[in-house]
Amino acid sequence: MSRWDEIEDAASGRHLSVMGALHPEDLDGLKTVVMLGPQEPGFWAMFTETPEHRDGAADPMDRWSERVIGDLARELRATALFPFGGPPFQPFIRWATETGRAWSSPVGLLVHDQAGLLVSYRGALGFADRLDIPARPNQPCDLCALQPCLTACPIGALGPQGYDVAACKTHLNSPEGAACMQGCLVRRSCPTSQSYGRLPQHSHFHMKAFR
To answer: Of 38, 164, 192, 206, which has the most beta carbons under 10 Å away?
Structure first.
């Protein structure tokens, strides 16, 4: 088994997917960063059975990520890196674009070759070795003729003009925002998002935290 296959298999065994990798130039002692996100379908069903989800304490998914990715890092002789816990914060958005598997979408949000606009990163693994990275895919937006994300927001808070966060949160906290609480309609409109397999309950979890 190749080193890359070993990493993918170990991540998959913890309901995580490799979302891309890069060779950083600004991390002392680390030559490869492998980014991890929820493995779909099935992530939410797994997560709701974990101690972190059941104990009622704050930040259950972040705490799950720290525990599981920390264990994974020890198993693979890597360094665990997270998008939370700062400041300072690790540059996950920049890393994502440097993997060649995530790009700026027509509405400015990150879009991923497999997760679409529902892309999220639970953490990353930093390796001292320079690992071979698989070939990078094409950007899904290049093949998306209709680009429904541009017009999906019911109040026009997110579109080609940018993102009005205040208007979005006001809508989410109104009765009219109930549909958006099951997952941002812009993110859900992406054809790649629709084939990703994330459950509405998972999106609702993040929308509650956001609003």
So the answer is: 38
